[in-house]
Amino acid sequence: MSATDLLTSDFATLPDLLRDHARERGDKVAVADERASLTYAELDTLTDRIAAALQRDGVAQGQSVAIVAAASIEYVAVFMGTLRAGCVATPLAPSSTPAALAAMIADCGAPIVFVDADNAAAVAGQPIAARQVRLDSDDFAAWLAPEGATPAPVTIAPEHGFNIIYSSGTTGAPKGIVQSHAMRWAHIGRNAASGFDSAVTMTSTPLYSNTTLVSFLPTLGWGGTAVLMKKFDARTFLELAERHRATHAMLVPVQYQRIMALPDFDRFDLSSFRLKTSTSAPFSAALKADVVKRWPGLLVEYYGMTEGGASTGLNATEFPDKLHTVGKPLPGHDMRLIDEDGNEIAQGEVGEVVGRSPAMMTGYHGRRQATTDGEWYDAVGNRYIRHGDIGRFDADGFLTLLDRKKDLIISGGFNIYPVDLEAVLRRHPAVADCSVIGVPSKAWGETPVGFYVPHTGIDASAADIMAWTNGQLGKTQRLSALHAIDELPRSAIGKVLKRELRDRLAPHEEGD
């Protein structure tokens, strides 16, 4: 069966697609990093050798294979080899503490972990039973099965595990989100009209992030080329995009912000771009408008969860009057809003987002109660995933996100959404970036406190900025304190780590 036939079938696997691409477009570059590249034929051959080596070492179908490394062509090959062996790819965040890495490796039960030089010491210093293989040394070449080796065939069913993605752990211990081959097939299949078969996709967020995989996997699934960045830098991104004649990119909002802020952005030739996407964090309407105006190609913002549920899409190029929203639910995605008691609410009212679609997690690995807590069922028993976000649908069916449910500030009985305060604070010319959190208050229960990154060359005190901001806000919304900060703490995919902001405040500090 050809790749075209597979892509139009009800279900196929990425390893099978990779095999057919190797036959049909073997000389085409599948993946490139800063050092080298692999054609589809080369990637398929290396995938076979890795899968055969895993089987030789007794790694059974359904077991996890952990990876703790920066993006590289070897990383991609291990990911694909893991899938071909019928195992579950488990990419872990190198930014995690050594203890957290050890806990995640133990939790997923991986008998083998692939590391690079920057992460080998962190893993080696922990009580980890898994065998370690260095990706960027002769150790990897020695571990591989011999040239020409092929793995024993395995049967992969839609419900079998494809990967485990661990949550960031910013609100507690990381949870392993199990995603099936059916879920990933849905991600690949829904991009039929996105031109990934001829794409050159810039991959500038880490491969352990679902944000990356929802564009990276369709690129390989449809036979495009993925250009990997080991570490994001705005200027380097533009240089690589120009050099490779990039057509697609998935970037988080803070990356767009840094790229568009470059004084010489307009000198780069980005005319090859056809589609730019974004997800994972709030994307301001002003920034979207700037990208639409100055960067060729469509801009589409997606909203969804690693756990699945439902997703929305906003074609910012087509709907310039809806840039304050995250768009409408995608075809085949059912999204609803519920109140605190789990009852559906009417259009225009504010509630928690729940959703269902073909792309939903199986559950949290080894955590039945956490899985149950993250689910909601409608009156006829359909399963939905609780997104944990607060939102409102407008009359046209576009969703406006107000905030994370856990970030909602209740002050004097009034609900305060930090995103509203951040939108005002960000309009001050002396504010380059900002975030608002809730802190305990004896008088009000909670009160909002802001952090901001000053704009270089603009002189304004925190007191002046706070007074200006509070002058634009309602009485119940006003900031009780504002702190200057050199840089907001963010995860590798651009989410502000609000718990770290809270930790910066003195233990006794309370709002008024």
Query: Main β-sheet: number of strands, strand sense, barrel status?
Result: 9 strands, mixed
Beta-strand percentage range: 15-25%
What is the first-to-last residue Cα distance? Answer: 68 Å
Overall 3D shape = globular
What is the strand arrangement across the widest sheet? 2-1-10-9-11-12-13-14-15
Residue-averaged pLDDT, rounded?
92
Compute the number of helices. Answer: 16
Residue stretches low in confidence (pLDDT < 50, at least 5 long) are: none
- Strand segment count: 26
Radius of gyration: 23 Å
Q: Into which percent range does the helicity of residues fall?
A: 25-40%
Label the structural class.
Answer: alpha/beta
List the SSEs and their pairings:
Blueprint: H1 3-7, H2 14-24, E1 29-32, E2 37-39, H3 40-56, E3 64-68, H4 73-84, E4 88-91, H5 98-108, E5 112-115, H6 117-124, E6 131-134, H7 138-143, E7 161-166, E8 176-180, H8 181-189, E9 200-203, H9 210-222, E10 225-228, H10 234-244, E11 248-250, H11 253-260, E12 275-278, H12 285-294, E13 298-303, E14 312-315, E15 328-329, E16 334-338, E17 351-356, E18 363-364, H13 368-373, E19 375-377, E20 383-393, E21 399-404, E22 409-411, E23 414-416, H14 418-425, E24 431-441, E25 445-454, H15 462-472, E26 481-484, H16 498-504
Parallel strand pairs: 1-10, 3-4, 3-5, 5-6, 9-10, 9-11, 11-12, 12-13, 25-26
Antiparallel strand pairs: 1-2, 7-8, 8-18, 13-14, 14-15, 16-17, 17-20, 19-20, 20-21, 22-23, 24-25
Helix pairs in contact: 2-3, 2-9, 3-4, 8-9, 10-11
